[in-house]
Amino acid sequence: VQLQASGGGLVQSGGSLRLSCAASGRIFSTYIIDWHRQAPGKQRELVASITTGGTTDYADPVKGRFIISRDNAKNTVYLQMNSLKPEDTAVYYCAARGWAFQYAAWGQGTLVTVSS
């Protein structure tokens, strides 16, 4: 599977953005999809996950603000980001993995910048 992330940009604090992760390959629906982010000078962190059955999980800093969803018919996963804060500024990556966190593919990253 190959992944392509898009949708990043510059937004003011309190605004919203929707990221997309488009996948090629027939077995997209069999993977758990994560969104990770890496801020300047910081380690990459897991932000949100969605299983093959649609179960979602979120990191504490984004709970209640971000929503991850998937459309298997379109081979796409979305990350709706609301009430954005300057600390959300980072490069966001999508990734496909199995249940034991064995990663099969990473997208190239899309930059999100939140101005105060």
What's the short story on this structure?
With 116 residues, the chain is mainly β. It has no helices and 11 strands.
Question: What about the largest sheet?
Answer: 7 strands, mixed
From the spread of the alpha carbons, the general shape counts as globular
Strand content: over 45%
Distance between the termini: 37 Å
- Range of helix content: under 10%
Number of helices: 0
Q: Please give the number of β-strands.
A: 11
Low-confidence stretches: none
Give, in order, the helices and strands. Answer: EEEEEEEEEEE
Structural class: mainly beta
Overall pLDDT level: 95
* Alpha carbon gyration radius: 13 Å
Structural commentary:
- The chain is mainly β and 116 residues long.
- The chain contains no helices and eleven strands.
- The protein has strands at residues 2-6, 9-12, 17-24, 32-38, 45-50, 56-58, 66-71, 76-81, 90-97, 103-106, 110-115.
- It is globular and about 40 Å long.
- The model has no long low-confidence stretch (mean pLDDT 95).
Question: What's the layout of helices and strands?
Answer:
Elements: E1 2-6, E2 9-12, E3 17-24, E4 32-38, E5 45-50, E6 56-58, E7 66-71, E8 76-81, E9 90-97, E10 103-106, E11 110-115
Features:
11 strands, four-stranded antiparallel beta sheet, globular, 116 residues, seven-stranded mixed beta sheet, single chain, mainly beta
